[in-house]
Every structure is written in structure tokens, then in C-alpha cells.
Model the fold of this input.
Amino acid sequence: MKRRTARCSLAALTAVAVGVGLAGCAAGSTGPAPVWRGATLGPTSSATGAATPKPDSAVEVRLAFAGDVHFTGRTLRLLEDPQTVFGPITSMLRDADVTLLNLETAVTDRGTPQPKTYRFRAPRTAFAALRAAGVDAVSIANNHILDYGRQGLADTLDAAAEARYPVFGAGRDADAAYAPWLTTVRGLRIAVLGMSQVHDLAGSWRATDTRPGVAMAFDPARATAAVRSARERADLVIVFMHWGVEGNSCPSGEMKTFAGRLSEAGADIVVGTHAHTLLADGWLGRTYVHYGLGNFLWYGNSHSTDSGVLNLVVRERTVVDSRFVPATVSASGQPVPATGVGKQRILDKLATAQRCTGLAAKRPG
Done:
């Protein structure tokens, strides 16, 4: 069961949804400044604006991360019952204090198809399915959120606002796109940002001061400024990246360089998706990095069907435990926890992939 997690107030969520499309309960171009709440307040309580006490260094918070999700083909059929979409792995998602993944689709039935090979869109029940599975918020900083143009993005933001469901990494302008989603768990203030480093259509899809779009890593000054701003307001800063070379289990030089910039700017955790195969993890100084989580709820057997859930335990700013639970994308498109030989094969694959990460295997003392 999900532990009780304090989040931005419903009033703040509503105001942000009107102003910046629910890109996060943070200052946007037209939204309100972030308001932190104490961990004892319920989801409908009013925010006080009082400073949140520094979290107890002994308090542990459990985080869960998963990879790419969309609803098309066989996974679209799963939405006929939103309560059961994620199948047997649901308990693992619900068990963490905060669970995050990448929503690789526009939520729309309108818009203009973009000039690309693969285009994904989903009905609004997608948000009900995510909530039922215990997923607390999703990144929409990816190379499919504008598959149906800016109309599709606007519809996605509107649907999220109507569902009161947090999305981050894209918005109605650059301020909204680079704004973090903010939540507080037992006194630990967490800021989560989403960004994309996928080159396809990046120039026309990037958010600007006057145009909706995605928070892109190709503007490193703005990207690192967003991390530094989050660092000033949060105890724990997470960046959810969309990056990598499809089918390649090793991070590119471009990924490694940008991970270094995020670390220097103050990111505590960097987690990635996009490559459709599992990459590995490690330490970049005191920043925990997992370069790629693969497919999760997936429509076909393209690339690897290896999947899983990354579980982290944090105290204050530090990841004190990491555990990857292997899974396999099944014939239904649902990820199923792996066992026996299949589980060991995935763990061995990750151990091999760790060698090309350039990351330290252990946290510095």
C-alpha cells in the first residue's frame, strides 16, 4: 500500500493546471510559486506556506522508477479496465512512497500527425490507470508527447489537469516545461524534473518563452539553471531523462557529459529511459545515475523485452540502497516480474552493461 505522501495542495494544483498545464506545483510563467506542506496534512488540506523542517537524517523514503509506457495496440485494450492495466507488477509500484515513470504518448484524440515513423496517443483513461497502479507522477519529456502536434500536447495537459494528475517535463511555455513537480514525504522535500535529449524534431518541439513544448537538454544553460533552482527549494532533486541510442546498452558520450552537468548543478538522482533496452547504474561523484530502464508497458516486441522496477531508498540527499527488480514484457504488453534463469540473465546483463557506464560501482565515502 502507498504510504501517506503530502503533495502540493489541490488549490495550488488547480491554479497551476490553469496557468501551466500541471507541469508541476512550481513557479511557471503564469502559475503560483510553490507551496510546501508538512507531511501530516491530508490531500485536501489548505497550504500554510510555513517553512518545512529539515528532515530527520534517520528517516528513509522509498522511491520506485520504471521505464516507457504507452497505450496502443495490445496495451490500449488494457484500458478497458483501468484498475488492472499494469497487472501483477502493480503491488511493486504501489509499495513505494513515490513512484515515477515515463508516459510515452500524447493523451488526445485530436491534432495533426507529425512527420515521423511512430506516433502514439491514448485516451484520458490513461491517467486513471496510472493512478490505480500507484504511479504518483509521470515525465512527458520525450519524443512522443507532441506526436499529434501542439494540439495533442495541449489536450494532454488539459486531461492531466482535469484528472488532477501530475505531469512534468513539458508545458505551455519553457518556464512550465522546466518546472519541477514538488512533493513532500515525511518532511523530505522532493523536486522532480523531466528533460529530453532525443534529437528527432527537437528544434520544433522544444519549449520556448512563447511556445509550448518539451524541456530539452540541448539548452544546457536553462536545463542546469532549472536544477540549481530546484536545489534551492528541495532536499532531494531528481532528474528524469529521455536519452540514449535505441538498442544500445551503453550510454553515449553525450549522455555522460550531460549527466556530469546535472550532477554539478545539484541533481541527487538521474534516471533515464528511451533506448528500449536496459542500461546500468552507478555513481557520478555523489549523484546516483541509472542510464536506462527500458520498456515497461509496451505494445510490441521491438528491441528488448527486458524490463523491471528500480527501487531506491534515500536518507536526506543520499541514496543508501538501490535494487533493480527484473521483469519481462509479456504477450499482453504488461511487465511481469522475472524469476529463475530469466531473472539471473537480466541481472548478468546489467552487470556487463555497468562496465561501459563510466560510473563508480559504489557511493563515495
